[in-house]
Amino acid sequence: MLELTKYSSIGEALRDALETWPLEVCLMESDRGEEKQRLTYSDFKSRALPLAKSLQESGFAAGARASIIMTNQSKWLISAYAIFYCGGTLVPLDYKLKPDEQWTLLKHSNASVLITEYPIWRQLSVAPGRAAAENVKLVLVTEAPPNADLGGAERWESAQGTGHPVFTPRTRTDLACIVYSSGTGGTPKGCMMTHENYLAQCIALTAWYPFWPGVKYLSILPTNHAIDFMVGFFGPFTCGAAVVHLRTLRPEFVREAFAKYQITYVSLVPLVLKNLQKGLQARFDALSRSRRRAFEALRRINMALTKDRPRLALSRRLLNEVHQALGGKLEAIIVGGAFTEPQTLQFFYDLGIPVANGYGLTEAGTAVTVNDLKPFRADTVGKPLPGMEVRIVNPDAEGIGQVAVRSKTVMAGYLNEPDLTAETIVDGWLMTGDMGRFEAAGHLQLFGRKKNMIVTEEGKNVYAEDVEQAFEGLPVKEYCVFAANYLWPSRSMVGEQLVLVVHLEPGQTFTDALKHEIAARNNRLINYKRVHGILVYPEDFPLTASLKIIRVALAERLGKLERAQAILPL
Amino acid sequence: MRTLEQTTQEILELATKHFKAAPGSLKPEDDFYKKLGIDSLQALDMLSRLENHFHIELPDYEVQGVSDFRTLAERVQARL
Fold first, then answer.
1. How much is the ipTM here?
2. Cβ of B64 and A95 within 8 Å?
3. A431 interface with B at CB cutoff 8 Å
């Protein structure tokens, strides 16, 4: 692994990585089970530098911002490196957002360059939101068909400058990325991440979960997500490891990829991990009685032998068939983005497949705590990584309070939101809004959230405010959206729901027609953003002088209602 | 060549069978996430089944943001 303490930027570290392992494979790309591309670090460099030169020729220079909206593929990483090489700030955006949401964030980030894929651009280029994002001057589009109308964009493949680009150094405190941690309805939360944030996070994570040349990481989580950016790009590259991309993310191709590439690490959201569990369980259930008994005996032996620590070689021999189905080389499954149920973690550990579950947030530079497997614990989110200071603010009698984090990985703040930043980072401590406590062995346990948001099993952060615009113009006096757990604190990290609170006009009654209208608007929202129930509130909402709803005060009043009786299910 | 109506009907029948919905309970305008109570993984799995049935390839990006049977049928129809 590169000695990351001596570098001052992502670009500088990556530049050395490409020189250190020129002949190692860094990227493999497969589509529908067929390998389409394999690049060495040297190939990667020869593809990225002409792009960097072309960007420089277009005037892209130190501190300028460039956005990438792409699915997981080699050109994502090549483009990102070219941007860092020029000293630029990367704005990775979620390719799953709607075109107008993407334009809103493009405008908010003030990116001057956009790099995207043709199918995404086809929708983006005609979206109304484009008109307002005048800051985007250059659009590069990958994989466009020969005669396609590019709507003012240029071909990524033709962006080839001649001659050597000039490497632009950055300091550790310069902005490396602006990462959006949520949707766009309310305040776009653009986390300003410095080069220091990434270098420190990479050192911390690889201390417990190292990469080395020969490691194959399967990249499934979107690369715009902080986890995949770290363990599916920066981490493996600074260690000479390889990343596998699948262009079609279907369960059957993912399963096949494990065996075909003998994957070493993969990151999954809890939903996918649970799906994998279901699939394996169904196979165990289908075994004949005698084979099932033999399998259970082996599983029990494995459980006894791995009680104190994982013994991968032993587990692979004992439960060979299960491990072979996953390629036989899996070191650990990294699970993140949302809370994972302990029984799912235990299921895999009992099979000799360690799951590195942890706790993190974009604002803290991905992971804060991770399971160190010494021993494995399914009931916690692990211990603070090296270099992370974690404390519990205002603990109650049971030791539960808000989790606060101080480390070199904590973001510089939210872009253009000094007030929100000041509320979130207090005296150098990042207030996470999550409730937790440390147990005797120093592991962190989580107990719900203090903030008005939910996290879905797919790892989507949904802020209640972001959902409100779907109900704009609803024929009621006023309305507001809350996370149910925010109104009625519950010590649970799963099954979180949103509630729409409406206050009717004087004399208005809650009719079926109104309920239908709410349901229809709700259905237009993407599935994970939908509200689960309606609360008809009989009193005026508390308002500020400028007629904005005082959420905290309203939440306090609503919290006094009986949850089950107050909510009308949708 | 199928008409859009026929394609839609076949998709509804496939979904009814695969997700064990009550016969005749699915409508073209239904949101399949909600109506079938499925998650995004199961939706991807459904895509693979549609590909096999219609002998087409449906890239992931074609169905990005699609959540009702009618739009899904349009995307399938465009590839037939």
1. 0.76
2. yes
3. no
